[in-house]
């Protein structure tokens, strides 16, 4: 990657963020409004960044991209018309699920509707057990079934047969025949998730089928627009925190479901690791226009999970472990039936956006509250070009105050700020306290357009004493795209008690997995393969994942599992341990980013009244890019840059690092 011009583009709900790195180490960032067809905004962002950098888009050597196409399809129920083919007698697995209510104590709570309604769920005569195929599938039956699927208007097909994770022969026949007969993509469970648990495997396969047409169509448009600019075909950020070629993602669309948030966590790990070497880890806090995403980085590694849900649909593919709440800069404040002030999850989006954008929006939002509190000023220019209408923000909040029984717009702004912060504090507790981690031992990495405005207040409420604000905090997900390694995952169920395992047989299974992952790598000679295993005590329902060495050592793996179990749950047992799944991840590491930071100059811009500790204070406003390495800032202060604003409350202070990262320390009670 030496001497290359790299560009990363991340699409969010409100803005599309761009980070461009030149061969000389110059970092150029840009932010443009997101568009209905995301590829349009992506191209505009590339053009803007290249124009600011003084280069032609054709000079870009590497283009990496994160988008919200698949997650939007799931959240908005706007995916493909999908059919499901399954084993006779198992048509309703997708609907029965785990028979768990979304809210344990709400007897009227509704579960989300299945992605595939019953009329488009089809059965085929076949049977496999964990020991092998008992009844082979009849190809003529599958060809007849293809006619029924076509008549049902299916745009995509999911195939999930019983025990296909262990013996995929029948499922392979069904998928091959349907691909011959139908002009529609077919997702087969043994290709999507070769892992036991019928409901989760079927759900993940259905999600893959549901989002595949949207991903395929979107990437087609993006590749065409990129070609017109002379920009390379993009590599795509996956939910696992690694990138993959667009051609690979088209075949595994479900891997893109948390693309953008994953890029942000990778960017946080890249820029903030080492800022607090005495810390147990980092809490990453990404507050954008629509939502806030929280995750953990421990020992320099991004936390991952295989147990996630989006809009109530389980997805078992590996992904960065992100907790999301509907509280972003564009989140709308409202009063519920009990006269309580609420914030989100509904958002004003990019158009018309918050009232202060001056684009016709009238709903009061978190951004409007920050304007009234003085954290964002009328002289600010979001994205370098969007001026703010302070009067419109005040009018919107005054209307909310009337409905909420509050004194004035300021009281409404204070309430919105507190409620939004409470929502985000709960999200941070969910990934720390609720998982046995003490947040006081972590640093908080703040990014996103709104994150650095709220970070110190959140840290105060959690007794966190260090806040790290990366230089590219407003577009850190885009920056993370420049640093992300290529990653490909593969899994296979291999349920055996550790005491009964044949080490050579396990190593043979790993060899097969490694071959599968390396097939997806552009240059296998550059890849390293990491092994892992899912284990549990016999009788438990869920597993913990631990690393495995080059040769499977049952005693060493068992010891790692006991340690992991004690760390996660506070105890270990003497019960026997069983292996459930074996995993392999092929990684092609990118060269580390070499970013130069100069800064310096006249950083002081002006002053304005900002609200701290119950009163307005005359607060200095700085141009953050004017602060050189080693510069210090004492609160209260406000640091502005094109894509974000940092609020430094009283009793906090900050120091600028050699790479432009701002580290805030201490603490105190402030609004």
UniProtKB/TrEMBL annotation:
Xref: SUPFAM superfamilies: Actin-like ATPase domain (SSF53067)
Superkingdom: Archaea
Domain spans labelled Hydantoinase A/oxoprolinase: 201-489
Membrane spanning residue stretches: none
Every Acetophenone carboxylase-like C-terminal domain range: 504-652
Listed Pfam families: Hydant_A_C, Hydant_A_N, Hydantoinase_A
GO MF: 5-oxoprolinase (ATP-hydrolyzing) activity
Hydantoinase/oxoprolinase N-terminal domain location: 6-181
Residue runs in coiled coils: none
GO CC annotation terms, alphabetical: cytosol
BP-aspect Gene Ontology terms: glutathione metabolic process
Name assigned to this protein: Acetophenone carboxylase gamma subunit
Source organism (scientific name): Haloferax massiliensis
């Amino acid at each position: 990657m030496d001497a290359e011009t790299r560009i990363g583009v991340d699409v969010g709900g409100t803005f599309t963020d761009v980070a461009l790195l030149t061969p000389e180490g110059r970092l150029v960032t840009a932010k443009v409004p997101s568009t209905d067809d995301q590829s349009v905004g992506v191209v505009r962002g590339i053009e803007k960044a290249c124009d600011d950098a003084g280069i032609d888009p054709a000079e870009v050597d590497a283009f990496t991209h994160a988008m919200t196409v698949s997650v939007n399809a799931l959240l908005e129920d706007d995916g493909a018309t999908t059919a499901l083919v399954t084993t006779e007698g198992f048509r309703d697995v997708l609907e029965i699920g785990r028979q768990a209510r979304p809210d344990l104590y709400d007897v009227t709570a509704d579960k989300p509707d299945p992605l595939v309604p019953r009329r488009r769920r089809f059965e085929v005569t076949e049977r496999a057990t964990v020991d092998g195929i008992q009844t082979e599938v009849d190809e003529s039956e599958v060809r007849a079934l293809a006619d029924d699927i076509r008549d049902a208007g299916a745009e995509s097909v999911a195939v999930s047969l019983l025990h296909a994770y262990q013996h995929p022969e029948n499922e392979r026949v069904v998928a091959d025949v349907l691909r011959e007969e139908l002009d529609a993509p077919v997702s087969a469970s043994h290709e999507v998730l070769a892992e036991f648990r019928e409901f989760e495997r079927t759900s993940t396969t259905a999600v893959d089928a549901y989002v595949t047409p949207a991903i395929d169509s979107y990437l087609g448009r993006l590749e065409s627009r990129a070609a017109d600019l002379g920009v390379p075909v993009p590599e795509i950020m996956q939910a696992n925190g690694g990138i993959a070629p667009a051609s690979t993602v088209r075949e595994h669309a479900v891997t893109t479901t948390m693309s953008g948030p994953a890029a942000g966590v990778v960017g946080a790990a890249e820029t903030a690791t080492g800022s607090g070497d005495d810390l147990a880890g980092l809490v990453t806090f990404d507050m954008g226009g629509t939502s806030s995403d929280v995750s953990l980085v421990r020992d320099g590694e991004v936390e991952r999970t295989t147990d996630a849900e989006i809009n109530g649909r389980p997805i078992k593919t590996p992904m960065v472990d992100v907790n999301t709440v509907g509280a972003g800069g564009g989140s709308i404040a409202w009063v519920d039936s009990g006269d309580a002030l609420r914030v989100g999850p509904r958002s004003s989006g990019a158009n018309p956006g918050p009232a202060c954008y001056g684009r016709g929006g009238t709903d009061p939002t978190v951004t409007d509250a920050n304007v009234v509190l003085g954290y964002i000023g009328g002289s600010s220019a979001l994205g370098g070009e969007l001026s703010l209408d302070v009067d419109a923000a005040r009018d919107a909040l005054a209307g909310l105050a009337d409905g909420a029984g509050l004194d004035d717009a300021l009281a409404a702004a204070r309430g919105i700020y507190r409620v939004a912060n409470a929502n985000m504090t709960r999200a941070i507790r969910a990934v720390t306290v609720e998982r046995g981690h003490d947040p006081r031992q972590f640093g908080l990495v703040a990014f996103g357009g709104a994150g650095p405005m709220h970070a110190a207040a959140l840290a105060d409420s959690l007794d966190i004493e260090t806040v790290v604000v990366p230089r590219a905090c407003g577009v850190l997900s885009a920056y993370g795209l420049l640093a992300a390694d290529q990653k490909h995952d593969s899994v296979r169920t291999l349920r055996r008690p550790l005491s009964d395992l044949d080490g050579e047989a396990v190593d043979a299974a790993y060899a097969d997995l490694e071959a599968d992952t390396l097939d997806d790598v552009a240059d296998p000679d550059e890849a390293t393969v990491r092994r892992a295993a899912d284990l549990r005590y016999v009788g438990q329902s869920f597993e913990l994942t631990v690393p495995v060495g080059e040769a499977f050592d049952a005693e060493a793996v068992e010891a790692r599992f006991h340690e992991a179990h004690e760390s996660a749950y506070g105890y270990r047992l003497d019960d026997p341990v069983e292996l459930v799944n074996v995993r392999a991840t092929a990684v092609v590491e990118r060269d580390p980013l070499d970013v130069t930071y100069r800064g310096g100059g006249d950083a002081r811009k002006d002053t304005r009244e900002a609200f701290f500790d119950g009163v307005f204070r005359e607060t200095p406003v700085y141009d953050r890019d004017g602060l050189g390495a080693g510069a210090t800032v004492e609160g209260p202060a406000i640091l502005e840059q094109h894509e974000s604003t940092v609020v430094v409350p009283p009793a906090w202070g900050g120091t600028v690092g050699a790479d432009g990262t701002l580290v805030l320390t201490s603490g105190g009670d402030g609004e």
